[in-house]
Amino acid sequence: MKNDYYRKPLLVVLMGLLLVFNSCELVEYSPYQVKLKESEKDLNRKNAEKIAALGLKPTDTLRIALISDTQRFYDETEDFVQAINQRTEQKGHKIHFVLHGGDISDFGLLEEYRWQHQILKKLKMPYLVVLGNHDCVANGDKVYANMYGPFEQVYQFARNRLILLNTNTMEFTEDIVRLDFLENNLRDTENYDNVIVLAHVSPFDEDYDRKKEAPYAQLIRQYRAYPLHGHKHTHRIMQPYNDGINYMIIGSVSNRRYVELTIVGKKITHEVVDF
């Protein structure tokens, strides 16, 4: 009887410890913790592989939907997904993928990234996201790196090259605009017909490093790149350097608009679509 008396409370303690250890995986101790499921990791690379699997040819018409700054606009993002899914079902109007111009989160929190991904994964086509300045708040840059990959990325679909670049100079103490990376991926012009550079903050924005503005614009001009940016929330096309290069600002999804980019050979056109 004496042995049973001590054995029962010991069993209760052991069972309690077992429950605690087993539940550790279910508890997030901090909103700044970066703990992702395997299905949430490295999404840009995974989605780029899906685009590559489409087997696009240089003669194919390529259609890309552009959005940006979805951050806290969850209802509008839901409506965009529904609208673009319906549009791609139209005969002869397939949307091949979506480009997101950054600020997928507002405060850089893991749950914000997750909420947006839960919406965007309902798209009937892959999507790729560049890093935005809000995405860097708190430890959001670490969340982005785990969920979407490196801050600088390059992909190619048929003869169309896509370069993702980090231009959020206000959010980092170190020099982060990697013009060497940009130039290295622009230089081999014989290997592409069109090159799109997607970066959240434009070189002429007040939040951009002034020392990097002229060399950035020079590279875009020299290689006749097609620059896309977010950050300002309102769709605009401009030539800030009077050099024949159109810079596009992709408006926030809160405006209930997106841009459809159409590429045929070396010709790129765009249309603003309300939803």
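(ticket continues) Second input and output from the same batch:
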Amino acid sequence: MTYYNPMPPSRSCADAWLDAALRLDTEGPIYGLSLHIANPAHHSETDHAIIGEVDSLLRSYKAFPIVTVANTIFPEDLWTPGDRDALYARYDRLYPKIKRAAPDWGRYFRRMTDWPKARGGSENQLETLIMNLRKFGPAAPEEKNRYHMYEMTLFHPVRDANKFRGRQCLSFIEIKPELDGDAVRLHMTALYRSHFYISKTLGNLIGLSRLLNFIARETGHQPGTLTIHSTYAELDPGDVNEKRGSTKWNKSGASDLVKRCETIRAEHASARAEPLAQAG
């Protein structure tokens, strides 16, 4: 068994997810699975079809849909570009409802924006990251450039270390600015200690891409690439939750979903190629 398993670079979130899911379906759980996505914010017609197929399965088993999973990382509908304070305030008002809906899950954005300090009070890690990028990033005067200080931690050693269930899967996010001519591109790396590829991963990728776009827009920069390292990944069989009424899709259901998504991609590729063949 090897603990370093990088996938070839992918063009989009859905493409990266499907390539890795196909490998998981063949090999079983994988340690050290790494994805690199060139354009995480872009979704083609094929991507939308794959996302829809995964979302349909999740909803049919009453699991959290993709939009809910993505919103745990970045609640995009609450954001008015240029008004971060309104975003934070809207999320704070919704937080009690979020906590009641899922007591032990779904609060990554809260950890980004309300991290407890050792002596009381809290730190908005996300706002600090944005302000530091604006102050010290490559667009600033040369003597103030900093490439090593844009990170957020999601793992809490007191809250999470001894949890058997309900602990965070996303542990760390880091941003690297790159000066590309006159533009600055922001590249994101995220570390996951565990990844359920059916119920969570595609929503996670979309949520991270939205977070990256938000950070880029609010700093006046361009979104770059997204790199994900999962120290453990598997095609999960679903979960039984009596409160939500969710049931398992099991190993066969996960495998069938991946094969359907592979068929969707192949059919879309064939449809694009056919007019070219006719024209030739």
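Agent notes: The mean pLDDT is 92. The chain has eight helices and eleven strands. Closing as not reproducible unless the customer responds.
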